[in-house]
Amino acid sequence: MTTFRDHLGETLEIGERVRVTLEKEDDGTLVAAHPNDSSPLDIAVVEGMALLEEEPPTQPVEVELLPRAVDGRIAGRVVDARQSG
Fold it and tell me: From what superkingdom does this record's organism come (predicted)?
């Protein structure tokens, strides 16, 4: 039986890695729109900022989605800040 929590985890893509463009909010939090249009939460980067050369980076970065929420957003960790191409 699929639970609501299972469905929500699938929608948010917990554990998946996504390439997103980060923006810096007034409080310094790095955020991005979730690339899955059906996701109810955007992304707040809370780990891995040491990989960034600048905040916010000018190019998209790869973020792993973590199984927790922060300030109404799904938590994320920067795992690759290299330019794709």
Answer: Archaea
Q: Is residue 85 part of a domain?
A: no
pLDDT, averaged per 10 consecutive residues of the chain (85 residues), comes to 50 84 96 89 95 92 93 94 72
What's the number of domains the chain is made of? Answer: 1
CATH number at residue 68: 2.40.50
Burial class (CB in 10 A: 0-12, 13-18, 19+), 29: middle
Contact 65, 14 (CB under 8 A): yes
